[in-house]
Amino acid sequence: MSSYVTRKTPGDTSWFVHDRFGMFIHWGLYAMPARHEWIKSREKITEEKYDIYFKYFNPDLFDPKEWAKKAKAAGMKYAVLTTKHHEGFCLFDSKYTDYKSTNTPAGRYLVKEFVDAFRAEGLRIGFYYSLIDWHHPEFPIDPIHPRRDDEDAYEQSKDRDIRKYAEYMRNQITELLTNYGSIDILWLDFSYPDSRMEGKPWMRGKGKDDWESEKLISLARKLQPHTIINNRSGIDQDIWTPEQYQPQEWIRHKETGELVVWEACQTFSGSWGYHRDEMSWKTPEMLIHMLINTVSLGGNLLMNVGPTARGYIDYRAENALKVFADWMKYNSRSIYGCTMAEPEFVAPKGCRFTQSQDGKRLYIHLMEYPFAFLELKGLAGKVEYAQFLHDGSEILFTEGNSKHFSLGRLEGEDLLVLNIPHIKPPVIVPVIELFLK
Ligand code: GLC
Prior knowledge:
Layout: H1 16-19, E1 21-25, H2 39-42, H3 47-56, H4 64-73, E2 78-84, H5 110-120, E3 124-130, H6 153-157, H7 162-176, E4 185-189, H8 208-211, H9 213-223, E5 228-229, E6 239-240, E7 261-267, H10 284-296, E8 300-305, H11 315-331, E9 338-339, E10 351-356, E11 361-366, E12 373-377, E13 383-388, E14 396-400, E15 415-419, E16 431-436
Parallel strand pairs: 1-2, 1-8, 2-3, 3-4, 4-5, 6-7, 7-8
Antiparallel strand pairs: 9-10, 10-11, 11-16, 12-15, 13-16, 14-15
Helix pairs in contact: 4-5, 4-11, 7-9
Bound molecules: alpha-D-glucopyranose.
């Protein structure tokens, strides 16, 4: 059994640390301007101007069954959808707002269709819910709000009552956790209490006291005790969510130093929402490396897709999903049910290890393909059988020294030497599976 123990938390993370790989979906009105989901804030767009998107939102090609099939083929086991992003637009039929998909030309109840389609494919369901809301009339203007630079920002903002907004959130979370059956993840986003605006002391960021996070979370816990909640409401909960970077170590709790359950979230390119002209798409190698690196440090990967305004996944995202599908089809055994290898196993240069949580199998990911031999320290005498994971073909090995006349090594080194083919198999990252004694 794996010796790593993580901090105890209330939600049920047992399935999560097994499944390891999920799909993030950022979708909303911002898919129409198609230049980043923060467009309303970045370009300081007024309500009236932004309304044009609401007026014409019509994802006629939205077919969540297609999305779900693609996610499943990519090896993803769960999906987290933006039920509401910072722009405030709801993809669900909330009683508490008119600003929702059912009131657009789409006329559809998108969250419901998403839930049904993904469940039908056997995927677990997560709801992203933005704490930030740039549409709600009681949401005070702050340093990232679209109206922050208006001359009369103070006038516009001074009578807004964040308590009313906090109540609105509780009402909506109640809807989300009541109307769709079991919800596996609640992904709240985000807190920025230290944010300030120069010259405008009244304008400040928001955090747990503004969201009334204690109340919000105890409500969510009451409605669905098992739900995994992230920690972006400003109170530590079940999962830590590093964004757009690759941690170099298993994440630890700041105060206690305990290992925590974590999930890296990443984009295919530099935007979460559909971005037509964004060109920094990650290469197939980067994508597969991210997944392996993450699991090799005990984490999960939540890989984002930003569907188009017409509701389909564009060719670039589709290609990226296909990269995962091709690799996962044969190599998922080194991901599902796996975690960081025990400390006694140290990966050689250019390799990453994962280990099955029952401790019986060790996976060597060949990120840089070595030529002819792979020498592993500390593994001599511990391996019963070795094979490539993608085709189940035997990898021969010797123990002790690398027996090569040119090495001039001393006898008696404790090496396991894998004899690997000279030519890299046609797999982005080949994996060797070691069955431990
Ligand atoms: C950030 C961004 C947001 C995105 C999220 C995903 O908080 O504000 O646009 O949804 O990260 O992690």
